[in-house]
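Hi support team,

I submitted a single chain yesterday and got back a structure, but I'm not sure I'm reading the token output correctly. Could someone confirm the output below corresponds to the sequence I sent? I've pasted both exactly as they appear in my results page.

Thanks,
R.
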Amino acid sequence: MTDAELPERAQRVEGLEPAARAAAAILAGRAVLGIELGSTRIKACLIGDDPAVPIASGGHDWENVFVDRLFTYALEDVWAGIQAAYADLVADVRRRYDVQPTTFGAIGVSAMMHGYLAFDDSGDLLVPFRTWRNTSTGRAAAQLSELFGVNIPLRWSVAHLRQAMLDEEPHVGDVAFLTTLAGYVHWKLTGRKVLGVGDASGMFPIDPTTRDYDDELLARFDASASNPSVPPLRSLLPGVLTAGAAAGELTAEGATLLDPSGTLLPGVPLCPPEGDAGTGMVANNAVSPRTGNVSAGTSIFAMVVLERALEHPHRELDVVTTPAGDPVAMVHCNNGASELAEWAGLFGRFAAAAGTPLDPDRVFEVLLREALSGDPDAGGLLAYNYLAGEPITATDEGRPLVVRTPDSRLSLGNLMRAQLYGVFGTLSLGMRALVDEKVELERMHAHGGVFRTAGVAQRFLAAALDAPIAVADTAAEGGAWGIAALAAYARRVAASESDSAQLSLARFLDETVFRDASVQVVAPDPVDVVGFAAYLDRYRDGLAVERAAIDAL
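Hi R., thanks for writing in. Yes, this is the structure output for that exact sequence:
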């Protein structure tokens, strides 16, 4: 991003040029750092005095590994990736502004939610990190859902713990602390074992009145536990904090973990660590009732902030919370845009082999725009993006498939439209539970890299949900910017204790972050809606093919 490309809003403070203002904020230690550990990329985002404007960024690519039939990341790779992303951000700061950051106004850490990170009383990891992609907890999730009377998804931390207990895994008796990936990183940076309420709500159900773990359900879990060596569950879980709360300061050890060069100073305040669902809500200004957002990445999920409790539990829906603790219905699909990226890589390699290499972003743009030429129903083609199991459609493992009949119309446009429809297929099935609950929405936002090509994925998502979809000009910034905004909010609350009760997260986002935001809204095209409905009917019927492939391959 050049200075000329910085949002116009960044050029309106006291006549200074954007680069001069950014450099001044960095040198004065006012800039705010957000770090998010996504499934395929660790991103760092720096914002200045205006939290709406990213002023620098860094990143590091990484990928989970599949070991012993479980998806995992090594903790060594966590720190190597964080350090690489931070170093990349520092290099970007130097290149843009010719300054070196030594401290920040605040830091926030976010990461993919759920999963299982279990430590003993010495702080040693007991078993490899079990990520949200694993679907090996079916027996435990079903048992807990019946015990609690609410849906407990396969990926929730409590389901992983109960499954380990059911399987009598030897490590269970040594568990002293459970947390998420964001909670782990925050713990090592600050020494505090806490979580933002949104991330905590993917570990164990939250009581909407206390905005803390549900005490009655904790008691049910403890009473039903078959392993007497396991302490009360609450003692194993991180403390719960809502947005705006103080969550500790960067220790000397934490500063070295983040920046091994020794340049970064300790003492920086941190906001509560959050999950990627919470930062997605913040990045879309979707934290108030009757708002919602869709986040598309390795997984894809929709978040809808509720006005009232759901009448019935639904297998397709989690009930989690916003970073402020308000209840949210979440439709989470394990499989998002990864298979689409694989196809883009294939076509990118074809272009290079043909002697016309293209930048990966250009490959995506060409393919997505070609999808607009496809038939409304994708010409009879089907695409399943199942690299992992998909609980909503009751598949335990993944087998990516492209399926067609002899009379299907095979073209590049139809193939790419089928792939994009496939990204949204399972999400559309899950969202029907919200229709049954008569949940109303005023606006639905979307963010993620797939929406960078204007008017394509956004248009097809509008057809899949039969609802208008808004995409802000910050949509591609994603969760690293979202957690930076949460850190800026915590800093603002700390600086204005006198009116902190009035400075709600929703108000901060409306009046400060999104006050001048540029948002593009696409209404569903009736032809696309009919075409996607026909595709979805075939998609549902074709799940038998997906299940047969899992059984056979």
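A quick pointer for reading it: The radius of gyration is 23 Å. Let us know if anything else looks off.

Best,
Support desk
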